[in-house]
Design goal:
A four-stranded antiparallel β-sheet has the order 1-2-4-3, sandwiched between helices. It is globular. With 194 residues, the protein is α+β, with helices and mostly antiparallel strands. The protein has a domain at 33-164: NADH Oxidase, CATH 3.40.109. It is built from seven helices and four strands, in the order ααβααβαβαβα. It has helices at residues 18-22, 37-48, 69-77, 82-85, 110-127, 140-147, 172-179, and strands at 59-65, 91-98, 131-135, 153-162.
């Protein structure tokens, strides 16, 4: 029996694009559905065209499909309850920021720019019917070791991507989170000055 999912469209304080209001981060991924390679390529292409300071493009991605050794290595580096659900995602992506240039100069906006690239990726993926969930709970050093990531690069987030699954397949505590209403503080509380 499927767990009902509430309407996930955000109740916004001001009008936004429908794709932004509809985007959300599920934990239930379809374990038997593969990702469409063209849709994955489009999501990565959207990330490629994100803006960056001085066009440095300080993002790199480790892209691993379910069933591969790379997917397993990323899954093994996840911590806590992320391991309970993220392995079902068709693709796991390690989003990495180049925080120092090859000559040793700091790239202070690299993490911000990577965030923009992942945001572009997530919107394109959602547009194409895929779902994205970003995670901060992972072992950075394990990922560095697993993929030979140099010290001047920083793994910032792990992204689960794929077709949505049935929340009933999740552990009970996560089923409750999957069906919980989406909430955000009011826009006015995010403004320091306006």
């Amino acid at each position: 029996m499927s767990t009902p999912v509430l309407n996930r469209t955000a109740a916004t304080d001001a009008p936004v694009l429908e794709i932004l209001a509809d985007r959300w981060s599920p934990r239930a991924y379809a374990v038997d559905d593969e990702v469409d390679e063209q849709q994955l390529a489009s999501a990565l292409e959207a990330a490629r065209w994100a803006p960056s300071a001085n066009n440095t493009q300080p993002w790199r991605f480790v892209v691993a499909r379910r069933g591969s050794a790379e997917h397993a290595r990323i899954h093994d580096a996840l911590m806590g309850f992320n391991q309970a659900w993220a392995g079902n995602a068709a693709v796991l992506i390690v989003a990495v920021a180049e925080t120092t240039s090859p000559d040793g100069s700091p790239l202070p906006w690299a993490v911000y720019d990577l965030g923009q690239a992942v945001a572009h990726l997530s919107v394109q993926a959602h547009h194409d019917g895929l779902y994205v969930h970003q995670m901060g709970g992972f072992d950075r050093d394990a990922l560095r070791d697993a993929f030979g990531i140099e010290e001047r690069f920083e793994p910032v987030t792990v992204v689960a991507l794929g077709p949505i699954g049935d929340a009933a397949d999740l552990p009970e505590a996560l089923q409750e989170r999957e069906a919980a209403p989406r909430v955000r503080r009011p826009l006015a509380e995010s403004l320091i000055a306006s």
